[in-house]
Specification:
Helix 3 packs across helix 4. The protein is mostly helical and about 300 residues long. The structure holds FE2/S2 (inorganic) cluster (FES).
Length: about 300
């Protein structure tokens, strides 16, 4: 919808601005000529009164031209105002979708079925489309989609925490506790239900390290990168763990979402450096090999 309305609005805005500029330049070009014409007729009418009707006719013509131009300018102003507002609203909506293009019809057909069916019947077109697009993107990224996320939880915590900006952190904390990360769909729902904007959500969730924007594994491996552990080889341990778990360079979780690897600050047991923690289990004085063995032993016990 942003493209359907926003682009024509931008086109109309551009054309009307050009017209009004051209009109203004034309008025500036003709003004001295009109003035000169009036002065000539005044001179002639002074010398010969038979020129008076011609002078009055010229006054009348110039007055009509001026009135028509004023009326045109009012129309230009209305069109510029309406098309600017339309364009800005569409642009704001587009940005609120994450700056990504809305899905085309083929994507909608491919992904509709369940996601549209799950949109509440009273939901407006914006809500339903935003949900559909979010679902489509989540699936492409391999994240849980709306169908797997119970948004009634979000509705409930918004009711409990409030709808103002001051509720942003408590809401995000509860979403994170519940889903173990901040799913896009849940954040979008928060924006729909509260006064909190997508920009404010993005600001808060990126400022605090406690918030995660991608799904986590069932178990968290914390690799200490405090000074003592860093000196004792934490970097090599991290790289070996990631290599063994086949974690992509831009990810922190393995493919079957069993382990998430986090680099953390001092875990408070520097005498054991280098240290890792797998959930609540601590292992120290590790090498890359023994760290991986500890992880495999944990998997065997909890897998
Ligand atoms: S630096 Fe790693 S436990 Fe302190």
């Amino acid at each position: 919808m942003a493209c359907v309305l926003g682009l024509p609005a931008a086109g109309v805005l551009t054309v009307v601005v050009w017209w009004s500029v051209a009109d203004y330049l034309e008025a500036r070009r003709t003004a001295p000529l009109d003035r000169q014409r009036i002065e000539e007729l005044i001179e002639k009418a002074r010398a010969d009164s038979s020129w008076k009707p011609a002078l009055e006719a010229e006054y009348e013509r110039q007055k009509q031209v001026s009135l028509e131009r004023d009326a045109r300018r009012v129309r230009y102003a209305y069109v510029i105002l309406v098309s600017s507002v339309t364009f800005l609203v569409c642009a704001k909506w587009f940005v609120s979708l994450g700056g990504e293009r809305p899905p085309d019809l083929e994507e909608i057909r491919q992904h509709r079925g369940d996601s549209v069916a799950h949109a509440p019947k009273h939901a407006g077109w914006r809500t339903r489309w935003a949900r559909l697009w979010s679902t489509s993107r989540a699936r492409r990224n391999g994240h849980p989609v709306a169908d797997e996320i119970d948004l009634r939880f979000v509705d409930r915590i918004v009711e409990e925490e409030g709808r103002g900006i001051e509720a942003a952190i408590p809401i995000l904390q509860r979403i994170q506790r519940h889903y173990r990360y901040l799913p896009d769909e849940a954040l979008r729902r928060v924006c729909e239900l509260t006064e909190i904007t997508p920009a404010q959500i993005a600001g808060v969730s990126s400022f605090y390290a406690q918030f995660r924007r991608s799904p986590v594994g069932r178990h968290i491996i914390k690799v200490c990168h405090g000074t003592a552990c860093h000196v004792a080889g934490a970097r090599e341990i991290t790289e070996e763990i990631r290599r063994r778990l086949n974690i992509a360079p831009d990810a922190d979780t393995d493919a079957d979402r069993f382990f998430t690897v986090d680099e953390v600050a001092c875990l408070g047991c520097c005498s054991l450096a280098p240290v890792i923690m797998i959930d609540e289990t601590t292992a120290g004085k590790l090498t890359p090999v023994t760290a991986c063995e500890a992880i495999e032993a944990f998997r065997a016990e909890h897998g």
